[in-house]
Design a protein that fits this description.
Layout: E1 22-26, E2 36-40, E3 57-59, E4 66-69, E5 72-75, E6 81-83
Antiparallel strand pairs: 1-2, 3-6, 4-5
């Protein structure tokens, strides 16, 4: 078992894909499951991308991000959970 806390101030150094003003941290993972936390400042984004052969689960902790998929875009609410 491995654990972590999403509310700590420990963030990973590395590439910022948000257009500036973003940070991320990798969470404990398994052989078939990846997990990360991303924090974006208002007006910032993550480049449109997708993963072959894996699904994603997005949990909105704070804010109202816009999710863009192959089916279109939609605004998410705080607390909303989406699977794609």
């Amino acid at each position: 078992m491995s654990d972590d806390n999403v509310w700590t101030d420990a963030w990973d150094p590395g590439e910022d894909w948000s257009g500036g003003g973003g940070r991320s941290k990798r969470l404990p993972r398994g052989p078939d499951l990846g997990a990360s936390v991303y924090e974006l400042n208002p007006g910032n984004w993550v480049v449109y991308h997708f993963h072959h052969g894996s699904e994603e689960l997005m949990v909105v902790l704070r804010g109202r991000p816009t999710l863009r998929t192959g089916e279109g875009s939609r605004r998410l609410d705080e607390g909303e959970v989406v699977h794609f």
